[in-house]
Request: fold
Amino acid sequence: MDIIKLIHDTMNICKEMTLAHALVGGQKLAHECKSFEESKDWNFFESIEQAKEHILKK
Reply:
């Protein structure tokens, strides 16, 4: 749960500062996040390269 709170807080700071962000993580973390209301809709990328591509497409 601590990591989820950290990610959540970091994402909020990025949004406040209008910084693009994407999540990179393994299936275990992605699965754990699905268990919580505030993180159930988060999308994780398997690599930094995939995350970068996603950000650049926006």
In short: DSSP finds three helices and two strands in the chain. The chain has a mean pLDDT of 93. The radius of gyration is 11 Å.
